[in-house]
């Protein structure tokens, strides 16, 4: 049975822009965020408190949080204690930590082994929970790693269990390089849902490198998942995951869900208006199904 309602977590302002080589002005980012809020999106990743040496595009994180309208649940990413502190100072109430199942990926992304990251995050999560912060944990390379190849499902589930025991509110389980297929999506999310449903919110995060993300979402829906990370315009990619392209597009996911009778509360036309605003400021061509129809109507 498919869910009646799905929550979309818009990750465009963060995942969508973090890999953009051209500097995007703060005002353009804020305009994009506000236009997305107009579409009915209620959960969004705004930015990341990461090292500006590693990810220069996110150096304006404090101002992005300070200047954007407060609508619904707004996440910022933080890889470590310093990021979490800066995020709280900026007034963030929902913080996303992130770790890769693959050691090699985690080292390239965060300069620590997975184990080192988990040990360092444990007291950070404890503190965030004591301060009343909503904590989301993003699990990268949950299917395939650009360096290590196929990832063992049990390793993903063990990492998820550990985060749940640390008290996180949400797990966002990611196909970082867009290599998962629908059978793999169903099998992982079905097992996660059977074991963790009710203990934590479960969210799926698909990149669309091989154009299987919509099929993977449908498979995850069948496994009982009703929260999906998507990015307006299909923007996105991790600077430390070579070969990966953007996230599955918000407008295409909303269109598919509404077509099969699942409510999202999001207006596709308004998502496309937000995409039109950011399009001139990004190098990536925007070629999503619904945005193309919107431009050619
Ligand atoms: P490091 O070089 O090991 O850091 O980088 P360090 O702890 O040795 O500190 C070095 C310097 O950085 C120090 O400053 C720290 O204060 C500073 P100095 O004393 O030299 O002046 N520093 C920071 N500054 C700002 N914010 C911070 C911070 N931490 C330390 N948080 C570090 C380690 C984690 C900082 C670095 O590797 C980093 O920033 N990585 C972030 C990478 C990233 O943003 N990746 C993309 C997001 S994840 C993603 O896209 C995947 C996802 O979409 C899901 C999926 O699709 O898989 C979520
Ligand atoms: Mg991602």
Report the order of strands and helices. EHHEHEHEHHEEEHEHEHEHHH
Low-confidence stretches: none
Largest sheet: 8 strands, parallel, barrel
Strand order of the largest sheet: 1-2-3-4-5-8-9-10
Helix percent band: 40-55%
Spatial shape: globular
User: What is the gyration radius calculated from CA atoms?
Assistant: 17 Å
How far apart the termini lie comes to 35 Å
Mean residue pLDDT: 97
Provide the list of bound ligands, each named once.
3-hydroxy-3-methylglutaryl-coenzyme A, magnesium ion
Q: Tell me the strand percentage band.
A: 15-25%
β-strand number:
10
Give me the number of helical elements: 12
Structural class: alpha/beta
In short:
The protein is 43% helix and 16% strand.
What brief labels describe this structure?
297 residues; alpha/beta; eight-stranded parallel β-barrel; two-stranded antiparallel sheet; 10 strands; binds 3-hydroxy-3-methylglutaryl-coenzyme A; binds magnesium ion
What does this structure look like?
With 297 residues, this protein is an alpha/beta fold. The longest helix has 17 residues, at 114-130. Helix 7 (153-165) runs parallel beside helix 8 (182-196). It is built from twelve helices and ten strands. The mean pLDDT is 97. 50% of the residues are buried. The chain has an eight-stranded parallel barrel with strand order 1-2-3-4-5-8-9-10, surrounded by nine helices. Strands 6-7 form a two-stranded antiparallel ribbon. 3-hydroxy-3-methylglutaryl-coenzyme A is lined by residues 15, 18, 48-51, 54-55, 77, 79-80, 82-83, 86, 98, 109-111, 138, 140, 174, 176, 205, 207, 238, 240. Residues 6-272 form the Pyruvate carboxyltransferase domain. InterPro entries: Aldolase_TIM, HMGL, PYR_CT. One of its GO terms (molecular function) is hydroxymethylglutaryl-CoA lyase activity. Belongs to the HMG-CoA lyase family. Keywords: Lyase, Metal-binding.
């Amino acid at each position: 049975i498919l869910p009646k309602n799905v929550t979309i977590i818009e990750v465009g302002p963060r995942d969508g822009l973090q890999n953009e080589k051209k500097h995007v002005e703060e005002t353009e980012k804020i305009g994009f965020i506000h236009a997305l809020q107009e579409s009915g999106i209620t959960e969004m990743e705004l930015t990341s408190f990461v090292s500006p040496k590693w990810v220069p595009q996110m150096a304006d994180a404090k101002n992005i949080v300070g200047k954007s309208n407060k609508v619904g649940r707004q996440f910022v990413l933080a890889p470590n204690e310093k990021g979490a502190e800066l995020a709280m100072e900026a007034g963030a109430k929902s913080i996303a930590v992130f770790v890769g199942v693959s050691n090699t990926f985690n080292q390239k992304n965060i300069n620590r082994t997975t184990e080192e990251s988990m040990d360092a995050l444990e007291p950070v999560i404890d503190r965030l929970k004591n301060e009343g912060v909503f904590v989301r944990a993003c699990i990268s390379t949950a299917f395939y790693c650009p360096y290590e190849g196929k990832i063992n499902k049990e390793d993903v589930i063990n990492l998820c269990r550990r985060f749940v025991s640390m008290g996180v509110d949400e797990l966002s389980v990611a196909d970082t390089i867009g290599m998962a297929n629908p059978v793999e999506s169903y099998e992982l999310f079905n097992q996660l849902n059977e074991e963790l449903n009710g203990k934590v919110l479960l969210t799926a995060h698909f990149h669309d490198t091989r154009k299987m993300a919509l099929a993977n979402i449908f498979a995850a829906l069948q496994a009982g998942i009703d929260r999906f990370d998507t990015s307006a315009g299909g923007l996105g990619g991790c600077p430390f995951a070579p070969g990966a392209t953007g996230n599955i597009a918000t407008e295409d996911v909303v269109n598919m869900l509404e077509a099969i009778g699942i409510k999202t509360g999001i207006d596709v036309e308004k998502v496309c208006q937000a995409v039109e605003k950011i399009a001139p400021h990004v190098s990536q061509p925007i070629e999503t199904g619904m945005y193309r129809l919107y431009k050619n109507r």
